[in-house]
Design goal:
218 residues; alpha/beta; Rossmann fold; Arc Repressor Mutant, subunit A; 10 helices
């Protein structure tokens, strides 16, 4: 680092003091990284983001007074140039997608190796996005599984509900009343079901419902 270059200024947000202390020791041992402050809850994090306007925020998902992921927008409103790296125990694709959807720039698990965390911080600070390869592979597989389910059963939950009632002999008016929707909406659902399943008659709908075990629920 030259004299003109500045340290990457980091705010640590985690409700466990021991975790924050360990992270501070790790990061401050690295060239070019500086922990400007720590916060143990969301309200303190918002205050310190405003006070320090850090370059990067290392953020836990679960905080005593709020959801870390949902708070990303609030933190970036106080520090508009700050990148956000989520550090979490949660390894599901749902949590990862939610984090990136709310504006996170990276996602690292708390059991990651120390060098991975440092690499993730540098990658995110440089304008990139970071996700552990294993989590990326998990998300790809989940997407494939979802596509396969959609291919085998193209109906939405509401459409399946409408189909079950149709197969039981209910009219569009009765379905609308039971599901608290308009008759026109019930008719639209029926048309979409016929189109998706490429069926043309009620008897074909009944046969499909029986084959799918829909009538077993009463």
């Amino acid at each position: 680092m030259t004299e003109d270059e500045q340290n990457l200024r980091i705010l640590l947000v985690d409700d466990h003091r021991v975790v924050r202390a360990g992270l501070r020791m790790l990061l401050e041992a690295e060239t070019g990284l500086e922990v400007v402050d720590e916060a143990g809850d969301l309200s303190d994090a918002v205050f310190k983001a405003r006070r320090h306007t850090p370059d990067l925020i290392v953020l836990d998902v679960m905080l005593p007074d709020g959801d870390g992921v949902e708070s990303i927008g609030r933190l970036q409103a106080e520090a508009p140039l700050a990148k956000v790296l989520i550090l979490s125990m949660e390894d599901s694709g749902h949590h990862v997608r939610r984090a990136f959807g709310n504006g996170a720039n990276g996602y690292v698990l708390k059991d990651a190796a120390e060098d991975e965390l440092v690499s993730a911080i540098r990658e995110v600070a440089a304008g990139g996005r970071y996700l552990h390869p294993a989590l990326g592979a998990q998300m790809v597989q989940a997407q494939i599984d979802e596509q396969e389910r959609a291919a085998s059963d193209p109906l939405s939950d509401r459409e399946r509900e409408v189909l079950r009632l149709l197969a039981q002999g209910h009219t569009n008016q009765e379905i609308a009343a039971q599901l608290y929707i308009s008759v026109r909406t019930a008719e639209t659902h029926r048309a979409h079901i016929m189109q998706k399943l490429r069926l043309t008659t009620r008897s074909e709908l009944v046969r499909y419902a029986i084959d799918q075990g829909m009538l077993d629920r009463g």
